[in-house]
Structures are given as C-alpha cells and as structure tokens.
Amino acid sequence: MQRIAVVDYGMGNLRSVAKALDRVSAENQEIIVTADAGIIADAERVVFPGQGAIRDCMRELERLELAPVLRQSIGEKPFLGICLGLQALMESSQEHAETRGLGILAGDVRRFPGDARDPVSGERLKVPHMGWNTVTPVGDHPLWHGIGPDERFYFVHSYYVVPEDQDVVAARTRYGVEFCCAAAFGSTFAVQFHPEKSQRPGLALLSNFCAWNGEV
Questions:
Q1: Residue 183: inside a domain, yes or no?
Q2: Is 154's pLDDT higher than 80?
Q3: Strand 99-100 and strand 45-48: pairing?
Q4: CA angle 80-67-42, nearest 5°?
Q5: Which of 2, 80, 171, 180 shows its CA 20 to 30 Å from the CA of 141?
Q6: pLDDT tens per residue across span 138-152
Q7: Global pTM value
Q8: Is residue 181 annotated as part of the catalytic site, yes or no?
Q9: Distance between CA atoms of 50 and 52, rounded to whole angstroms?
C-alpha cells in the first residue's frame, strides 16, 4: 500500500484536500493526514496544503519540527504544495514586514498592489484575490495532462510568489499583475490556487499527482 501524506500543521482545509485525494487516488494508495515527521518521511508522496498567514505557518512548522522533513521530502519524492504550500517554499515574504520561508526557491512573496485595476472595466481589484481565474500553463508537465490551456481554478490569497529563476514557473495568472501561480522543479509541483476546490480541472491535477512518479 502506497501512502500519500497530507501534512497537518494546524492550518489549511485538510479535510477537503484529503477527501479530494481519496476520490482520485488509486486503490493501492492510502491518504493519511498527519503531523508525524516519521510518517511523512516514509510516505511515497507528500502534499503540503495551507491557507492563512505565512508567519503562523512557519511558526507551526518549527514548533512541530516538520521543516526538516519537508526539506528532505522535496527532491526525494513527488511533492505537491497548495497555496501556502507554494509560498512557504520561497526565501521570504513581505507579509508581517518580512517572514522567512523554507528557502527552497530563491525569490520572495509579495502583496498585490492596492491600486490594481481591471484592464477592461477600470474598476479597482479587491485584495484578497478570491474566486475563479484563468490559469495558463507554461511548458509541458505531467500534472497538466488532460487540463486545457485556459482552465479556471479557484484562488484565495493576498500575496503571490516571485521566483528568481523563471524556469521554475509552470503556470501564470493575471490579477492586476501577471504572476506565477504554479512552480515546478524536480519532483516538486506547487500551486497558488486550490485544486481541491476547483472541480473538474482541480481533480484532474490531483489525479495526475497521485499517478506521477516524480519525473518530467
């Protein structure tokens, strides 16, 4: 039996993520929501979800001593980050002055500009960015299999990632500014949107992750 560990650090819509994974996973796969570093280390796949403030996220990861096993898992096995699970991979975030991330990817996390406007209507865009938006994949990746070039996914966030290495950008979205909404490197794939809330395309992405061997 293969295990897919959903990292539980007290933040994120864990029940929805686990339920969506259970719906699309194979019969020989078991979904485990856990804060146990040993179980995460032994799992064949790891999902790192989250929502809320990155400062609280990093504080809980350190308190539960989960940061080392997350760093170890990245690059070692298929790893999926969702929302804060993408932002936490960066070096730092502008949220709460400056919050240090896991430092896996060079770059930072920035807040949407308060004066951003819709290019068609001219109306000021609300922050947080909340609701459905078009995602445009960059390049080919196994997790985009069966997902169209302009599918819509569900977002809830006030900050977006700016990686230094543009080669890791796996998809872009526009909300006032064009931003990286998915990053991919090695056996890691991380998204700003919530696939567990994104109906058919979201379930397709999660299904692809469950079947992915980590190779591109």
A1: yes
A2: yes
A3: unpaired
A4: 60
A5: 2
A6: 999 999 999 999 999
A7: 0.96
A8: no
A9: 7
Catalytic residue chosen out of the listed positions 57, 180, 181, 194? 194
Domain for residue 216, yes or no?
no
CA neighbours closer than 13 Å in the CB half-sphere of residue 21: 27
Enter the tokens of residue 17. Answer: 């993520």
Q: Per residue in 188-197, is it b (16+ CB within 10 Å) or e — as a string? A: bbbbbbbbbb
Q: Residue 80: phi, psi to the nearest 5?
A: -120, 120
Catalytic site residue from 157, 180, 196, 210: 196
Q: Give the count of domains, the chain.
A: 1
Q: Any idea how long the chain is?
A: 216
Q: Give the residue carrying structure tokens 């760093």.
A: 71
Q: Which of 57, 83, 181, 210 is catalytic?
A: 83
Question: Residue 92: which domain range?
Answer: 2-211
**CATH assignment of the domain containing 158:** 3.40.50.880
